[in-house]
Amino acid sequence: MMQKGIRKNTVVVGISGGSGAAVGKRVVDLLLEAQVPVALTASNAGRQVWQQEMEYAFADAVKEWNHDDRFSFHPVNQTGSLIASGTAPTAGMIVAPCSMATVAAITTGIADNLLRRAADVTIKERRRLVLMPRETPLSEIHLENMQKLARIGVSIMVPAPAFYLHPKSVDDIVEYLARKAIDALRIENTGLPETLIYTGMPENPTSEE
Ligand SMILES: Cc1cc2nc3c(=O)[nH]c(=O)nc-3n(C[C@H](O)[C@H](O)[C@H](O)COP(=O)(O)O)c2cc1C
Predict the structure, then answer these.
(1) Rounded-to-integer distance, Cα 51 and Cα 157, Å
(2) pLDDT > 70: what percent of the chain?
(3) Cα–Cα dist 144/156, whole Å
């Protein structure tokens, strides 16, 4: 029998220990709002950083999301989870935020926790993998790892704000980043609702006078 929430259009979301837990949270919220099934996993460091950055507990967020039939949470040490297998049909995976440690593990195929294994599976099944790696400055090691992933088609979405959209708040920036990450799944090819396609250009673009 299928575990809760693993359907063909399920998006796997991984929250790892980079800074930017709010983006991972908003990705989950947006997908659920659009009635897209979400299978969430979070590394131990991801939960720790969430604790430090967010104003409420990760466990409370999971509790709330769990009210939605389309949501399933997969503990990072649960190697028997369906998202550890390519047999579970998914529409792809977003890791937001993605730590440099997780980038390195994915690059080298070290699938030593469920989040990293799910990313490994996404690559081997040739599904869309979107990473939001966050670190600054980036070392040659970080850049080489990301280059290797980009070359095999992984989408590297650095959390760079769109200043041309004149964000008024951190929430505006988080909203933009979360929507761009979802868009990078190439949702037009996955059967996900078109409402998720990002069209957020400024209403009154500044003309160059
Ligand atoms: C508050 C806090 C912020 C962090 N921010 C980053 C970051 O932006 N990028 C990064 O690569 N690691 C960051 N780290 C370090 C990672 O959490 C650490 O390397 C961890 O081992 C990553 O494990 P994971 O890849 O399993 O999540 C941060 C750690 C803490 C406690």
Answers:
(1) 23
(2) 91
(3) 12
Backbone angles phi, psi at 129, to 5 degrees: -120, 125
Structural domains in the chain, sorted by start: 11-196 (3.40.50.1950)
How far apart are the CA of 27 and the centre of ligand 1, in A? 19
C-beta of 52 in contact with ligand 1 (< 6 A): yes
What is the 3-state composition of the chain as percent helix, strand, coil, each rounded to the nearest 5?
45, 15, 45
Write the pLDDT tens digit of every residue in 63-96: 999 999 999 999 999 989 999 999 998 999 999 9
Asked if 46 and 15 count as a contact pair (C-beta separation under 8 A), the reply is: yes
Asked whether 37 lines ligand 1 (CB < 6 A), one says no
Alpha-helical segments (H) within 81-139:
100-108, 114-124
Pairing, β 155-156 against β 38-42: unpaired
Q: Which atom of ligand 1 is nearest to the CA of 16?
A: 27
Classify 126 as helix, strand or coil: coil
What number of residues does the chain have? 209
Residue 66, judged by CB atoms within 10 A of its CB (0-12, 13-18, 19+), counts as middle
